[in-house]
Every structure is written in structure tokens, then in C-alpha cells.
Design brief:
Blueprint (H helix, E strand, L loop, with lengths): L9 H4 L13 H7 L2 H4 L3 H17 L5 H19 L12 H13 L1 H4 L8 H37 L4 E6 L2 E7 H26 L1 E2 L15 H8 L3 E2 L3 H6 L2 H27 L7 E2 L18 H24 L14 H23 L2 E2 L1 H9 L6 H10 L4 H18 L8 H7 L12 H7 L8 H20 L1
Helix pairs in contact: 4-5, 4-8, 4-10, 5-6, 8-9, 8-12, 8-14, 8-20, 9-12, 9-20, 12-13, 12-14, 13-14, 16-17
Bound molecules: arginine (ARG).
């Protein structure tokens, strides 16, 4: 129950405000407004920001130089205590910023600790912390993405000559080299990484110095703080710097798109490891069993990876919804930006990693995959039509000729490859002996255009993928 008759004693509670209140907040209000259980995850960023701030304040002689060492040592100790799980989290201390400051006061005294918040507000402080966190999360993605791309390239290289049916509408369409199919995901991930790099330039801006909303009223050196924290620029407008979270939204959007790509890859791992497809087997280390059916070997990791995109899309929509219609500048609504951010970082990192190790252990059943092409009666139908085009028929006419052939074959229960020269010529006189019994290898080789599945092109694409990975690693 709320104890509304509590006498107010803000300092004793470790709150940073309170002297203008006659009574303490109700217990339920404390619990409702506190964010420490979530934003404790920002303690490193928060303390790094405080260190840079303190050094700058002392260098600018805004605070007594004599207090600088005590403040820095105290911050070190607070950081160690939090890292060791030794800091008690208390709702009445609201958030990470207040916890650090209150504990600092206990360690170095209220007088010394009282200088820390000079020329800054929790509004620019929290923007700083989440920018630092988001920048780290992006850098983490920019390690995880190339690692998965490398696993894709290696799987492709291990199965360089393997072909399988390519699908449209999940109906067999035309043969593809497996490597070509896998490199499709390489390209998606390449664009994902580019989105993260692009977002990073906008995250990489120092908001500190904006204070509550109007800017600090002391001669602070924002450039020095930016330099210490590795930011490429300082924010140009104090109101914007404390009010917007578009940098988180961009990160969430990039993560959501990446996870959508990963869900498609996961779906193919699920499909292809089924008995119906049987194109690949996941390693035992990356499958799970059933509690009732002794024979089961399930692709749970791929299923879970497939599911993750939903949660992260939700986080993106939740944040955009929070931001929509908010008046400038800071509003407490913004405190709710963190769960989604933290969950997304963990989800993305975990999904990228588990899929990369899963691919490392994939065994591809090339006989089975190639049989799905070679045993299909009509998968080369386009090639028969293309053949006639090369003999001078307009494509639409060629399409119609082959369509009729397909219909006849279907009625007679055979495939295009079984047709004799006489049977082919009965449908069109342009067919010659080289049209009899076309093969998947011929169909693959024919698609010799940039971006096509011809083996020479795919080899080139693999080499190019390797080159791009190396260039990126050199960075
Ligand atoms: N915990 C807050 C957040 O995460 C920090 C800023 C609070 N500012 C304030 N004036 N209440 O957004």
C-alpha cells in the first residue's frame, strides 16, 4: 500500500529530486516509473559517459579540479560493484543514472558526488547511453553478419557442383546451382550490413551537452567529450538530441529486415531437412529430439530463428508508435525505448550465430537434390522453348509449342527428355538432334549472364563474395 504520510527525505532515498515535494511518491508509482531492472544493462555506457563528462568539466574548470580524481575513482568502484552484481537495485532510485549517482555519493560523499550532474540532465544522459549501446549493437551485427556470410560461402564452396531445383510458387521451376541459391542470402546480408553501417553514421553523434532540452548553461567542451567517447560529431540541436529516438528505430528496422532474411533461410533449412525434400541434414549438435517419438530429429533452431523476426518487428512498431505524435522535447514515454532495443540486440546476435554454426554442420545430399531435377519431367521446359527461339521462333510461339509438348508428355506419362527426335519434330520442324535429352548441366551453363546461375558465373560470384568479405574485414 502507498504510504502517503511518509515524510519526504529525498537524499536518504537516493533520489535526485524531491526537495520541492511535501510527500514521497506512492509505492505503486515508484514501481511503475522505475526502469532500473531494464536500464541496468546500460551501466557501462552510463559510467563511460560520466567519466568523459567529469574530465571535461574539470578541464574547463566548471567543477573544482580537486574533485576530478575522487569522482573518477568513485565511478570506477561503482562500475566494479555493478559488474560483480553487488549493487542493490531500488525502485526509489528509478534508473541507472540515479543509481550510479546515489552509490557514488555513498562512496565519495554527497559533496563531491554532487558535482557530477553539472551541466547535464538525465535527458541527454539517457540519449547518450542508448546511442553508445546502439552503436555497440551495430558493431556486433557487423561482426555477426559477415560470419554468417562466410558460413554461406563455405557451404557453397563445399558443394560447388551441386544443383537442385529452383522454385517459384514452391513449384519446381528451373535448375539452380546450390551455390547460386546460397549466394542469394549472401547478397541480402550484404545489404543488411550496409543498412547497419549507414544507420551507424547517424547514431554516432554526441547528444550530451543538450542538457534537459535547451543546452547546458556552462562553458562545456562538447567536442572534447565527443572525442573521448569516439563520436564523429556533436548534435546540432539540443531539442532534437533529447527528443528523438530515430537512431533506435533505424537500428530496429535494419535488424527486423535482417531477421526477415534469416527467417527465409531458416524456412529453407526446415523444408530441405524434411523427408519430403531431403536435400540436407543438420548436424546432431544443431537438432533436437522429441519426448515421445524416438525417431525424431527436429530442426528446432531453424524454427526458432524463423520465429524471431516477429518479435523484432513488434519492437520496431512499438517504438514508432511511442514516438508518433509525441510533442517535443523529452517525454517519459521515451523510457520505454529500451526493452525492445536490448531484446533486439540479443536476438539478432544469437540468431546470426546459431545459423552460422548450423550451416557449418550442414551435410548436403547432392544425389537427392540432383535427382529432384533429373527426375522431374518438365523442369527444362523453358530450355526447350529457348532452343526454338535460337532457331528463330518468337518466344511466345516457342512457349506454346513446348506447352503442347508438355501436355502430350503428361498424357503419355513421360518427360521431355524422353522425346525422340521424330516426336520433337512432329511438334515443330526446327527441333534438331541436339534437342533430344537436354540436361540440367546444359540448362545451367546456358544462363551465362551477369548474376546468372552458369557455373562460371557462380564461381566468379563466389570469388567476388570472398573479396567483399575480406575488404569488409580490412574495413
Ligand atoms: N529513465 C529515463 C529514461 O530512460 C531517464 C530520463 C528521465 N528524465 C526525467 N526527467 N524523468 O528515459
Amino acid at each position: 500500500m502507498a504510504r502517503l504520510d511518509d515524510t519526504n527525505n529525498a537524499a536518504q532515498q537516493g533520489r535526485t529530486w524531491g526537495s520541492r515535494f511535501a510527500r514521497q511518491p506512492a509505492e505503486a508509482v515508484r514501481a511503475f516509473t522505475a526502469s532500473i531492472e531494464t536500464d541496468i544493462a546500460l551501466y557501462r555506457q552510463d559510467i563511460a559517459g560520466s567519466r568523459a563528462h567529469v574530465r571535461m568539466l574539470a578541464a574547463q574548470e566548471i567543477i573544482p579540479r580537486s574533485q576530478c580524481d575522487a569522482l573518477l575513482q568513485g565511478l570506477d568502484q561503482v562500475e566494479q560493484e555493478i559488474a560483480a552484481g553487488a549493487l542493490e537495485l531500488r525502485d526509489e532510485r528509478e534508473d541507472i543514472h540515479t543509481h550510479v549517482e546515489a552509490r557514488l555519493a555513498e562512496i565519495i560523499g554527497e559533496e563531491a558526488a554532487g558535482w557530477l550532474h553539472t551541466g547535464r540532465s538525465r535527458n541527454d544522459q539517457v540519449a547518450l547511453d542508448t546511442r553508445l549501446y546502439t552503436r555497440d549493437a551495430i558493431d556486433d551485427a557487423l561482426v555477426g553478419i559477415p560470419a554468417l556470410q562466410t558460413a554461406l560461402v563455405e557451404l557453397a564452396e563445399r558443394n560447388l557442383d551441386v544443383y537442385l531445383p529452383g522454385y517459384t510458387h514452391l513449384q519446381r521451376a528451373q535448375p539452380l546451382l546450390l551455390a547460386h541459391h546460397l549466394l542469394a542470402y549472401f547478397e541480402m546480408l550484404d545489404r543488411d550490413a550496409a543498412r547497419f553501417r549507414d544507420a551507424r553514421t547517424r547514431v554516432d553523434v554526441l547528444p550530451l551537452g543538450s542538457a534537459a532540452l535547451a543546452g547546458a548553461a556552462h562553458p562545456i567542451d562538447r567536442e572534447a567529450v565527443a572525442k573521448e567517447l569516439g563520436f564523429r560529431a556533436v548534435s546540432a540541436n539540443s531539442v532534437d538530441a533529447v527528443a528523438d529516438r530515430d537512431y533506435i528505430a533505424e537500428y530496429l528496422a535494419a535488424a527486423a529486415i535482417t531477421l526477415v532474411h534469416l527467417s527465409r533461410l531458416s524456412e529453407e533449412l526446415v523444408l530441405w531437412s524434411s523427408a519430403e525434400f531431403g536435400f540436407l541434414a543438420l548436424d546432431d549438435t544443431h537438432t533436437t529430439g522429441s519426448s515421445i517419438m524416438p525417431q525424431k530429429k527436429n530442426p528446432d533452431i531453424a524454427e526458432l530463428a524463423r520465429a524471431k523476426s516477429g518479435r523484432v518487428m513488434g519492437h520496431l512498431v512499438a517504438l514508432l508508435t511511442t514516438l508518433k505524435g509525441l510533442p517535443l522535447a523529452y517525454n517519459r514515454d521515451l523510457q520505454d525505448d529500451k526493452q525492445g532495443l536490448f531484446d533486439t540486440a540479443a536476438t539478432l546476435s544469437g540468431t546470426l550465430h546459431v545459423l552460422a554454426t548450423a550451416l557449418d554442420g550442414v551435410r548436403f545430399d547432392s544425389a537427392r537434390a540432383q535427382a529432384a531435377v533429373d527426375g522431374d519431367p518438365f523442369i527444362l521446359a523453358t530450355d526447350y522453348a529457348d532452343y526454338l527461339v535460337r532457331k528463330g521462333l518468337p518466344f511466345r510461339k516457342a512457349h506454346a509449342v513446348v506447352g503442347e509438348l508438355v501436355r502430350r508428355c503428361e498424357a503419355e506419362g513421360k518427360g521431355l527428355a524422353h522425346l525422340t527426335l521424330a516426336e520433337l519434330q512432329a511438334s515443330h520442324s526446327s527441333f534438331e538432334v541436339d534437342a533430344v535429352g537436354m540436361t540440367a548441366r546444359q540448362a545451367l551453363a546456358a544462363r551465362d549472364v551477369p548474376g546468372g546461375t552458369a557455373p562460371a558465373r557462380v564461381r566468379q560470384a563466389l570469388a567476388d563474395a570472398r573479396k567483399r568479405l575480406n575488404a569488409e574485414a580490412q574495413g
